[in-house]
Specification:
By secondary structure, the chain is of the alpha+beta class. It folds into two domains: 41-82 and 377-431 and 463-676, Collagenase (Catalytic Domain), CATH 3.40.390.10; 137-306, Neutral endopeptidase, domain 2 (Orthogonal Bundle), CATH 1.10.1380. The protein is built from 27 helices and 14 strands. A four-stranded mixed beta sheet has the order 1-10-11-9, with helices on one face. Strand 10 and strand 11 (486-490) form a beta hairpin. Helix 17 (376-399) crosses helix 20.
Length: 681
């Protein structure tokens, strides 16, 4: 799949939305709050998250093949079943036109489910490349293999790709960022706590086992694992933290090949970029972390050629582990899912292969999916909601008491130029030249990976296509992209039970409305606010307004840093700042938009709840979920989103209208003194 190049699009991420049949006896709309999902033994004034979701959480334990389980998960699993039907139907059309969505999807999925053929091959698909690594005799050959593996979507030594220049959003340039690590974050190599130490020990066992499956002895496997750990630990120590990377100015360095060579002369960047097929297509590159390259140069000089070859072999095994025979797949699952996230059992193969088909052929799969499962009225209703929230956002900017007229003008301009993408692209990706057959799953993977890399590299030096999507239409998620100044809501998320155009307005606005507001607010969070209306990284704020924003953001950091998970782990308020700002902004904007509807203006109760109460219950329900403790601990390190309960309780403790709706008073756990409540947008 195409590499994700900074700036990273900000997503709602793991949405869990509960919108089920209403027990309403008053003849109102048939979708709303399900009373059975509440836990009325918990006071709404003490813990609103568990009050709103406790009944559902008790009735919905995590299935063995999941690491967390919420309404988002249920929708996603339902989507997989829909996609399975599509893939099976396509696979039955053996005479489908070459290159058509049916042929691409059908033949890819057919090959992915050919477990007999895959088992017969074992590790044979990577044997040739592993032997090629063995035959490397000098640094030139080693770096040529690094370039080759980068094109396969691996990232040995560093991470390479092509994307919009953050400071000139009209051009696509080659980009280089820190990389080369197998574990999810640098902290796993460096931190000394018990869980981090356990993960490192398990990682060593995992690397050893993968080499053993390939045919090495136990002793050699352990030796190779030690080499991999040493190299990756040194690279981790030189890597920026996730919090440091939240400042887009710190990860932007416009460089030439000569300047890259000055940092890492051993890499010989002209040859490397030639191997990466971008020679002569650019005038400069964007570099994320110069200090990382300095450490890489040190490693290139101090690490033996043989150790680097071991490192590349591991990268090959790690890259292919989940697509080789079942013994490799199960070892890959054991470490990356069981150890890291606590998953009890591997998902059925058809689920994993549906996800892979969508990942490689998302636009082909998307065309078939939209035609069958995305009704026009859903797109129309979602577009109306976006327009309503846009109008509210503009009014709120004009009323801000802390922002100058100069910055307000530019903020309004940015808001009004946000591109909205709803459901599916106006122009589908053309997979011309991609060869997919029924004969070989591994070959299809290689062909699709090479095609996607070529598709990305061809953009270098070309005008930016602002109509392109960064998610596939069946995806159950949404995102904001700062360089394109766009909000995107795929068809996968705009369907029942997540979103229903016939639903109770209160629940729709509290749910999908808050999601839409969340993505809009990403354009004005601590990262997104640094991009102008055209998507260029630039400081368009007055210094006084920036200082006021930072003070307000600091209040949010302090609030969330006090929250704990698993009794001892604290939420990282700096890492989660952008998502917390977006959550707070989203619920604030959605509430005002809801109050402009007829239902929002009424006081009529349904199932004993006022419109305002149903709105806040609708918001809380989007985060209804259970999560395994291992996954909760992992997310504290890698996830820029706060845990579900704090996305609810943390946000609502700052909303005065929530206090009124549920009678929150001083002394209640949900209460926060007025002068300590955060408010930005």
């Amino acid at each position: 799949m195409q590499k994700l190049i900074s700036p990273v699009a900000a997503c709602i991420f793991a949405i869990s939305f509960m919108q089920t049949a209403c027990t309403n006896s008053e003849g109102k709309k048939g979708v709303g709050v399900n009373i059975a999902d509440l836990d009325t033994t918990v006071s709404s004034r003490k813990d609103f998250f568990h009050y709103a979701n406790g009944g559902w959480m008790n009735a919905n334990p995590i299935p063995g093949d999941q690491i967390r389980w919420g309404s988002f998960s249920i929708l996603s699993e339902g989507n997989k079943k829909n996609l399975l039907q599509i893939a099976n139907d396509a696979a039955q059309k053996k005479e489908a036109k070459k290159g058509s969505p049916e042929q691409l999807v059908g033949d890819f999925f057919f090959s992915a489910m050919d477990t007999v053929g895959i088992e017969k091959q074992g590790a044979t698909p990577i044997k040739g490349d592993m032997e090629s690594i063995d035959k490397i005799t000098d640094m030139k050959g080693l770096l040529a293999m690094v370039a080759k593996m980068q094109m396969w979507n691996a990232s040995p030594m560093f991470n390479f790709g092509a994307g919009q220049d953050p400071k000139n959003s009209e051009v696509v340039v080659p980009q280089i960022y820190q990389g080369g690590l197998s574990l999810p974050d640098r902290d796993y190599y460096i931190k000394t706590d018990g869980r981090s130490a356990m993960i490192r020990e398990e990682f060593l066992k995992h690397v050893t086992n993968m080499f053993k499956l390939y045919g090495l002895s136990e002793a050699d496997g352990k030796k190779y694992a030690g080499v991999v750990m040493r190299i990756e630990t040194d690279l981790a120590k030189a890597s920026m933290t996730r919090v440091e990377q939240r400042d887009p100015f710190k990860t932007y360095h416009k460089v030439t090949v000569a300047e890259l060579d000055a940092l890492t002369p051993s890499l010989k960047w002209a040859d490397m970029l030639d191997g990466l097929q971008v020679k002569g297509k650019y005038d400069y590159l964007v570099l994320g972390q110069p200090d990382f390259l300095k450490e890489l140069e040190h490693q290139l000089k101090s690490t033996s050629l043989n150790d680097w070859k071991i490192y590349l072999k591991w990268n090959m095994l790690n890259l292919a582990g989940n697509i080789l025979s079942n013994d490799f797949v199960m070892e890959d699952f054991h470490f990356n899912n069981q150890v890291m996230s606590g998953q009890k059992q591997i998902q059925d193969r058809w689920k994993r292969m549906i996800q892979m088909t969508d990942g490689f052929l998302g636009h082909a799969m998307g065309q078939l999916y939209v035609a069958k499962y995305f009704p026009p009225e859903a797109k129309k209703k979602a577009d109306e909601l976006v327009s309503n929230l846009m109008a509210v956002y503009q009014d709120r900017i004009s009323r801000l008491d802390w922002m100058s007229a100069e910055t307000k003008k530019k903020a309004t301009e940015k808001l009004n130029t946000i591109m909205r993408k709803i459901g599916y692209p106006d122009k589908w990706k053309d997979y011309a030249g991609l060869d997919v057959t029924r004969d070989s799953f591994f070959k299809n993977i290689l062909n699709a990976t090479a095609w996607n890399y070529d598709y990305m590299i061809k953009k270098v030096g070309q005008p930016v296509d602002r109509t392109e999507w960064g998610m596939t239409p069946p995806t159950v998620n949404a995102y904001y992209n700062p360089s394109l100044n766009e909000i995107v809501f795929p068809a996968g998320i705009l369907q029942p039970p997540f979103f229903d155009p016939k639903a109770d307005d209160a629940v729709n606005y509290g749910g999908i409305g808050a999601v839409i507001g969340h993505e809009m607010t990403h354009g004005f969070d601590d990262e997104g606010r640094n991009y102008d209306s055209k998507g260029n990284l630039t400081n368009w704020w007055t210094s006084e307004d920036s200082s006021k924003f930072d003070a307000k953001a600091k209040m949010i950091i302090n609030q969330y840093s006090k929250f704990t998970v698993l009794d001892t782990l604290h939420v990282n308020g700096e890492l989660t700042l952008g998502e917390n700002i977006a959550d707070l902004g989203g619920i604030t904007i959605a509430y005002e938009a809801f109050k402009r509807t007829e239902e929002g203006k009424s006081t009529e109760k349904i199932d004993g709840f006022t419109p305002d109460q149903r709105f806040f219950l609708g918001f809380a329900r989007i985060w209804a979920s259970n999560i395994r403790p291992e996954e909760a601990a992992r997310r504290i390190i890698v996830d820029p989103h706060s845990p579900a309960q704090y996305r609810v309780n943390g946000s609502l403790s700052n909303i005065a209208e929530f206090y009124s709706a549920f009678g929150i008073k001083e002394g209640d756990a949900m209460y926060r003194p007025e002068n300590e409540r955060a408010k930005i947008w």
